[in-house]
Design brief:
alpha/beta; Rossmann fold; 3-stranded antiparallel sheet; 15 helices; 12 strands; globular
Length: 379
């Protein structure tokens, strides 16, 4: 079965029209009303609502293919399995998931953090390339962002991918200027899909690829983007299958990029079943299973350090220069949203650029300003 597509679908409640790009729907109107309470405190985003009244996210229950509903009836922990056996089964099912989704004619972008989930994905692709060959692989590039590039390069070196197969987003730039492209207020509508912080990295990374990688397509539809992660969530949610999907689909963690869908090979019926039904025994956690997966792929993967996730938000790459902050504040306070809806926000923005409701509100202001600039009345 194909990888489950959990990219959100937006719905115009008046016409019933649907699109993966919210602003494509909103831009068809002459007048729109914003939901002034949409962005609440600390990511308390209402599940299926958007920034704009009359536009919502299609309900998850309507989004899931019917054949997946049988997974909700599965009983958890019905099959005792040794952790090492689980690891081998997981690798084989990941290979199957990748093989069935992989289009050799597409340009493949592998999102990579240098962490365990990412190195598992890239090592599986490496082994598949060794058996399937160049014709199957097609064009490929592994993309990482700061501050994780040091670990990423070590993983790539170990797996045998030369530098022509790697790209560091915004590589070599002054850390305090690193996020300036994320803060393109006038063009933010191109990069984000709803007023939620971040996720424009992927679209911006594709622009870097188009500029720097010879032979790369200029049409985003010619790319296949693969992502890792969510192993721990699959372990934790177990038989609460619908909760797993809610985690992926809700606005904060859901895919709301304007760069097309991201394929997560782990989102596959057979891998769901493996996690739900397996009883690994007492005291076995997700990190234990990840270690066993890497040991089965190549034990030396475990010797490569990971970036310290606990300190990631202390990185200089998540700080802004005073100049950038002043410009961001100025854009906000002079916007319609900043003047009429939340005039208190501009002064609260700081040089710390990490997930926060303040940057969500800044994004909301940018989207509203774009609509006004093309002649749409915003209330």
């Amino acid at each position: 079965m194909a990888i489950l597509d959990l990219q959100r679908i937006y719905v115009d409640e008046e016409t019933g029209e649907e699109s993966k790009i919210l602003m494509d729907l909103v831009s068809n109107k002459k007048e729109v009303d914003i939901r002034k309470d949409f962005i609440a405190d600390k990511f308390q985003v209402r599940k299926y609502q958007t920034l704009f009244n009359g536009f919502r996210v299609r309900e998850l229950a309507r989004h899931i293919p019917k054949e997946y509903y049988g997974l909700m009836k599965l009983q958890k922990n019905t099959q005792k399995v040794r952790p090492d056996v689980f690891a081998r089964k997981f690798i084989e099912l990941m290979k199957r998931s990748i093989y069935e989704s992989w289009d050799p004619k597409k340009f493949h972008v592998i999102l990579h953090s240098g962490g365990w989930d990412s190195r598992i994905l890239s090592m599986i692709i490496t082994k598949m390339y060794q058996t399937q060959g160049t014709k199957w692989l097609g064009n490929i590039i592994f993309v990482c962002k700061e501050p994780e590039s040091e670990c990423f390069h070590k993983v790539m070196d170990f797996e045998g991918w030369s530098k022509e197969y790697r790209l560091i987003y915004n590589g070599g730039i002054d850390p305090l200027k690193y996020n300036d492209r994320f803060l393109d207020f006038d063009n933010l509508y191109v990069y984000i899909n709803d007023a939620i912080w971040s996720c424009n990295f992927i679209r911006l990374a594709l622009e870097d690829i188009m500029k720097k990688v010879p032979g790369s397509p200029t049409d985003i539809n010619e790319y296949q983007i693969y992502g890792a992660g969510y192993f721990t969530e699959m372990f934790q949610f177990k038989a609460r299958f619908f909760d797993i999907l809610e985690y992926y689909y809700r606005p904060i963690n859901g895919q709301y990029s304007t760069s097309g869908n991201i394929l997560y090979p782990i989102l596959n019926e057979h891998i769901f079943k493996l996690f739900i039904k397996s009883d690994y025994g007492k005291g076995v956690g997700p990190m234990d299973l990840k270690k066993l997966v890497m040991e089965n792929l190549d034990p030396k993967l475990l010797n490569i350090p990971r970036y310290d996730d606990l300190n990631i938000y202390n990185s200089p790459y998540l700080q802004l220069s005073q100049e950038t902050l002043m410009w961001a504040r100025l854009k906000y306070v002079n916007s319609w949203y900043g003047k009429n809806i939340r005039p208190d926000v501009g002064g609260q923005l700081t040089t710390s650029y990490k997930p926060s409701v303040l940057w969500n509100l800044w994004s909301a202001a940018a989207l509203c300003e774009h609509l006004i600039s093309i002649g749409i009345k915003v209330n």
